[in-house]
Amino acid sequence: MTEPIEVGTDIVSWCTKCKLILDHTLVALADGLPKKVKCKTCKGHHNYRDKAPAARVPGTGRKVKKTDYEVAMSRLGESYDFSTAKKYSMKGKFKVDQVIDHASFGIGFIVLSLDTKIEALFVDGPKRLVQNR
Ligand SMILES: [Zn+2]
Q1: Scanning 6, 31, 73, 116, which has the fewest C-beta atoms within 10 Å of its C-beta?
Q2: pTM beyond 0.70
Q3: From the CA of 116, how far away is ligand 1's center (Å)?
């Protein structure tokens, strides 16, 4: 039998402010389950979350915002020479964050690289492509 949890005990929770899994103090219960916690790091009160919010997985239907592409572009800086971007080819092998030059989609950024698949972010949104063929 496990000890019932009580207000005031230490609990590990996702901190919505620190954006980290951190030590918290339980401040409120609901139906015997942790409800509200206080972060020991930032002292903020927020709802208890046992884990980090689900990471956004590329290609699962989320709409890529134009800003995602712009952020990726700006990371390269103004001095980036796009003529050095690797030309996309099915036979190529690409890695995450690599800049590619696709014949129809234009300049893209690799966001996911699996064995024979890649996902790249283009100005029109993410595209799944093959690699290593
Ligand atoms: Zn915090």
Answers
A1: 31
A2: no
A3: 40
